[in-house]
Amino acid sequence: MLHTLMKSPFETNVSLFSSMLKKTDDFLALQDGVLIALIDNIFLKNIIFSSANLYVIKEDVYARGIHKNISSDFILISYIHFVTLTLKNKKQMSW
To answer: Is the pTM of this model over 0.70?
Structure first.
């Protein structure tokens, strides 16, 4: 399953969706959701603990000027790779 986070983690129930993530799931943060990938933020441990594949949209990270502060647990991808993730995951959930 592909889980996408488009809103700031401060506007989302991170505990709920991180508890739903499985090892085989893909998690993608985009738009303001990329803030969840910041090093040392309060939500990061929950997401990493899920063991899901973690991605952030590179363009959104750079647009917010936070590219030097992204956790190495996340893979920066383009919108083209986002399309690939949607094709791979027939089931999707937006947060």
So the answer is: yes
